[in-house]
């Protein structure tokens, strides 16, 4: 008999409740939000490039090798095998497919990603079009090295990676762009750093820009960060799909926070 830990039982129960309570756009009156939920979040049709990305995931896992990545507690580094990275750290195919559907739906011309676990979320973000330009900022050398290996294996030519401290690379990246269409924030180590990224990006976002924040439910600190982000005056509509927080800035939309089963 398999024993389920209390934490896993609570998470599974919460996800089941969300699936029953918040599904298929029920109770959503905004045409914008309803279309986004039904045509993007609830869409289950697969894109051919998803298979290509997952094939790259298999290729990068062989032969087995190790990388130095930040420790789970945020203190120091740990050596971890590529198999463990793919299993525990890399974005899940289901979540990556949602990123792909979002970029395909909104058609951003440029994408800024701040923080990258191992490179696969970038592949999903960038695959809807070879014309989209994606800039990834990553300050940890081990993660940056792994990302380069993934991008090279996938032959991704529309992705640029800049390595270095975010306090240095982000202002330069934004200075090179008048506007940013799509921002993906892979939750960073501290609320202060995440708030800095949001503050810097806000002046470069426009009414049609989209901000996606990953890992909004993983810790109490991240839950609080998401809660405060939802109520910022620049934000109009937010969508909580548990794995991601999705933010819109169109002032024509009534301010509303949606919880959606995914």
What keyword list fits this structure?
262 residues, alpha/beta, two-stranded antiparallel ribbon, 44% helix, globular
- Content of β-strand: 15-25%
The major beta sheet can be summarized as: 8 strands, mixed
Q: What Rg, in angstroms, do the CA atoms define?
A: 18 Å
Give the averaged pLDDT, no decimals. Answer: 88
Number of helical segments with 4 or more residues: 10
Fraction of helical residues: 40-55%
Oligomer: single chain
Number of strands: 10
Which term fits the overall shape?
globular
Concise structural overview:
The chain has 262 residues and is an alpha/beta fold. Helix content is 44%, strand content 21%.
Describe this structure in words.
With 262 residues, the protein is an alpha/beta fold. Helix content is 44%, strand content 21%. It contains ten helices and ten strands. β3, α6 and β4 form a beta-alpha-beta unit. α5 runs parallel beside α6 and α8 runs parallel beside α9.
Strand-helix topology:
Layout: H1 6-21, H2 31-41, H3 48-60, E1 66-70, E2 77-81, H4 82-89, H5 93-106, E3 110-114, H6 120-126, E4 133-138, H7 141-154, E5 159-163, H8 166-175, E6 180-185, H9 191-202, E7 205-214, H10 220-230, E8 237-240, E9 244-248, E10 256-259
Parallel strand pairs: 3-4, 3-6, 4-5, 6-7, 8-10
Antiparallel strand pairs: 1-2, 7-9, 8-9
Helix pairs in contact: 3-7, 5-6, 8-9
């Amino acid at each position: 008999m398999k024993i389920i830990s209390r934490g896993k039982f609570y998470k599974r129960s919460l996800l089941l409740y969300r699936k029953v309570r918040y599904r298929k756009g029920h109770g959503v009156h905004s045409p914008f939000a309803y279309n986004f939920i039904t045509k993007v979040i609830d869409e289950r049709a697969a894109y051919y490039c998803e298979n290509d990305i997952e094939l790259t995931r298999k290729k990068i896992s062989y032969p087995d090798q190790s990388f130095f990545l930040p420790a789970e507690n945020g203190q120091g580094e740990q050596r971890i095998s590529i198999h463990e990275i793919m299993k525990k750290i890399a974005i899940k195919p289901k979540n990556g497919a949602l990123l792909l559907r979002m970029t395909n739906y909104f058609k951003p011309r440029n994408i800024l990603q701040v923080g990258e676990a191992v490179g696969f979320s970038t592949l999903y973000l960038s695959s809807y079009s070879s014309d989209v330009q994606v800039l990834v900022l990553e300050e940890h050398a081990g993660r940056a090295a792994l990302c380069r290996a993934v991008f090279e294996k996938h032959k991704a030519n529309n992705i640029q990676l800049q390595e270095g401290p975010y306090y240095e690379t982000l202002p330069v990246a934004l200075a090179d762009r008048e506007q940013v269409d799509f921002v993906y924030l892979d939750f960073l180590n501290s609320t202060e750093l995440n708030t800095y990224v949001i503050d810097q990006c806000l002046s470069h976002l426009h009414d049609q820009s989209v901000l996606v924040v990953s890992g909004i439910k993983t810790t109490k600190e991240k839950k609080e960060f998401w809660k405060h982000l939802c109520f910022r005056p620049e934000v109009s509509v937010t969508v909580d799909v548990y794995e991601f927080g999705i933010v819109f800035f169109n002032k024509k939309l009534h301010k509303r926070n949606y919880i959606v089963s995914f």
